[in-house]
Design brief:
By secondary structure, the protein is an alpha/beta fold. The N and C termini lie far apart (52 Å). The chain has one domain: Cytidine Deaminase, domain 2, CATH 3.40.140.10. Strand 4 and strand 5 form a beta hairpin. The model has no long low-confidence stretch (mean pLDDT 84). The protein contains 3 helices and 10 strands. The strands form 2 sheets. An 8-stranded mixed beta sheet has the order 9-8-7-6-2-3-1-10, with helices on one face. A two-stranded antiparallel ribbon has the order 4-5. It is globular. The longest helix has 14 residues.
Amino acid sequence: MRARKVLGIARDTLRFILEASRSSQPMEFAGLLQVDKEIITEVLILPGTESSRMSALVRLYMLPNMQVAGSVHSHPSGRLLPSEPDLIFFSRTGDYHIIVGPPFDENSWVCYDGAGKRRDLAILDVEFKDDGFDDDFDDEFDDEIA
């Protein structure tokens, strides 16, 4: 798998990860990271993902035909070091892997590369483009009601 160039992670995406991880406690949260214009902006949660207090199992065969930049998962214990199973998973899913833990704030996460070495990942303030989908849907729904 070819490494994707990543400049950083969108602050709103990191906040989503932290909140999803906090609300999943005491179970682990897990997802895959997607990049748009060299910035991690999306978290893909695959169908069939199973979580427990000790691990999360992501069923990679459920991944549609798309590239991912890496993965994200929580360690509810607060230990932000990758385990052996984490390292095996990292080697199969890109080159940016985020582990988050309590207290689930912007200081309680670490990024690793595919080999499990710590790497810097900037938090970027980016604006997400509104694709207008919700507005179009609301207009069509309003027309049908009328």
